[in-house]
Amino acid sequence: MKNLVVNFSRQLQEALAIGKAYSFTTAPRSFINVVVSGLGGSGIGGSIVQNYMTDKLAIPFIVNKDYFLPAFVSKDSLVIVCSYSGNTEETIAAMMQALEVGATVMCITSGGKIAQIAAERGLDCILVPGGMPPRACIGYSVTQLLYTLCHFGLTDNSFEAELTASYQYLDANAEQIQQQAADLTAQIIGKLPIIYSAPAWEGVAVRFRQQLNENSKMLCWHAVIPEMNHNELVGWRDDATDKVVILLRNHDDYERTQTRMEINKTVFQKHNATILEIYSTGTGYWEKAFYLIHLTDHISVMLADLRQLDATEVKVIDFLKGELAKN
């Protein structure tokens, strides 16, 4: 897993080459909504792209993480199916529902049953390299989602230059990012992480939470500000010496949200929580997003090392799938 994190910029570069080379067979058309269906490491790319598209898309865009699609999905919907393995049972079920109602279905996968169904039905299916943990392939999924949206005129191709700048930025700052990750890891180890962000960066916060779960084998939680100011903040009553608050921040976060974060810090401090603030660097949404993703990915594998755990293994998920296969 460590090597996959270190080589993330190469994955972004390869993902761009795959997207540029792919020839869509489905003709461009208009839609009344967009649904990305995928779970775990295969679905988080959809959540991050959803954040990116919030102020760019005039139609609803949702990310579905279930066996079932919303009732509004119809022949006028674009459904993008994301399953790295191609065998995620929830995603396959949602895919079949999309086909039943006549939605336009696009697939992003490394193979499996989804690639087979796509070939049988004549669906567009962008294939990415296989053989890796899905959570290590976010560069592939994000990039192919953007190429798919671009094909249908739902975004322009400016993301290509932004993603190119992103992997170049990560390469240029690789040593600094790893040192920062090591410094932060030393302050997180032995504590329960609580991750907060502005709403526009919730996908990145969820990504960090999931990486701590899978790579570091740690429980943690996340919430967004201002929403948590209307509920969770009241829960800060007991001593929190065993907790570390991690604020994922951007200098251009909405000013009232930044004010709230500053006030929230006084509450966290009152209860003795460790507070870490991680500001994005770079220019543009994707440079900032991938900087935070890459930095926090490093933290997750460094925590695994300190805990003397294998960041790659997910035996409990394998157990779950084995039990499901019996029924």
- Which secondary-structure class do the elements indicate? alpha/beta
Query: What gross morphology would you assign?
Result: globular
And the CATH topology of the largest domain?
Rossmann fold
> Order of SSEs, N→C?
HHEHEEHEHEHHHEHEEHEHH
Q: Looking across the biggest beta sheet, what order are the strands in?
A: 2-1-3-4-5
What's the CATH C level of the largest domain?
A: Alpha Beta
Biggest sheet architecture? 5 strands, parallel
Brief overview, please?
This protein has about 325 residues and is of the alpha/beta class.
In terms of topology, how is this protein built?
Elements: H1 2-6, H2 8-21, E1 33-37, H3 40-53, E2 61-64, E3 77-83, H4 89-100, E4 104-109, H5 112-121, E5 124-127, H6 138-151, H7 158-172, H8 174-188, E6 192-197, H9 202-214, E7 221-224, E8 243-249, H10 255-270, E9 274-279, H11 284-306, H12 315-325
Parallel strand pairs: 1-2, 1-3, 3-4, 4-5, 6-7, 6-8, 8-9
Helix pairs in contact: 2-6, 2-7, 3-6, 3-9, 7-11, 8-11, 9-11
How would you describe what is shown here?
This protein is α/β, with parallel strands linked by helices. It has helices at residues 2-6, 8-21, 40-53, 89-100, 112-121, 138-151, 158-172, 174-188, 202-214, 255-270, 284-306, 315-325; strands at 33-37, 61-64, 77-83, 104-109, 124-127, 192-197, 221-224, 243-249, 274-279. Helix content is 50%, strand content 15%. Helix 5 (112-121) links the parallel strand 4 (104-109) and strand 5. The protein is built from twelve helices and nine strands. The mean pLDDT is 97. The protein is globular and about 60 Å long. It folds into two domains: 2-164, 3-Layer(aba) Sandwich (Rossmann fold); 176-306, Glucose-6-phosphate isomerase like protein, domain 1 (Rossmann fold, 3-Layer(aba) Sandwich). Helix 3 crosses helix 6 (138-151).
